[in-house]
Amino acid sequence: MPIVKYPRATEPLWHEWDRKAQKCGLRHTVYSVNGDQYTGEWLDNLKHGKGIQVWKRDGAIYSGDWKFGKRDGYGSYSILDPVTKEYKKVYTGWWKNNKKCGYGVTFYPSAERYEGEWSGGLRSGWGRMYYWDGSVYEGQWLEDRPGGQGMLRLPNENRYEGGWKDGKKHGPGKFFYLDKGQLFEGIWAADIPKCGILMDFGRVEAPAPTQYPIPKV
Description:
Oligomer: single chain
InterPro entries: MORN, MORN3
Subcellular location: Cytoplasmic vesicle, Secretory vesicle, Acrosome
Main location: cytoplasm
Pfam family, one: MORN
Protein name: MORN repeat-containing protein 3
């Protein structure tokens, strides 16, 4: 007499059907009610693995890694230029819990660019910022602003090297006036030099030195 196997009474049959219906592992394309579109890998009905998300409202697109429904890993985020109708890259780098985290490059309007570390979606750690006027800041960042030790090089090659706090010169630092052949070394507070010493530095090579040298003390 053949043996007949029946489903376990402890688990309803619809549980098995539900597991088979879930998106898991394979690539699927899903359209949201608001018109957003995702094409990629899934795990337990969550975006997980490699995938591409397109937001209909602003035409933005993310292509990269996902983890349990959030951007996590390496990926790029781009927006649609309303004039050229082409995608412009905004950020390429690492993500964690849907925010920029780790090393990445961000492209801002007016041709500004940041290359460096992120934490919780903010510039934090070491980084280099290229500003629209030609200035370049390279050094430490804290909560999206220069904080710690860093160097700011101006378009005329003059530069500041020293401490920063809340995006302003703060603490011991040196300002090289290479156009005049002078160096100021002192203490700053909220971008204002409070005390220090001004001395000649590279005066012979300077393009526009002061009329008289600074007397040595």
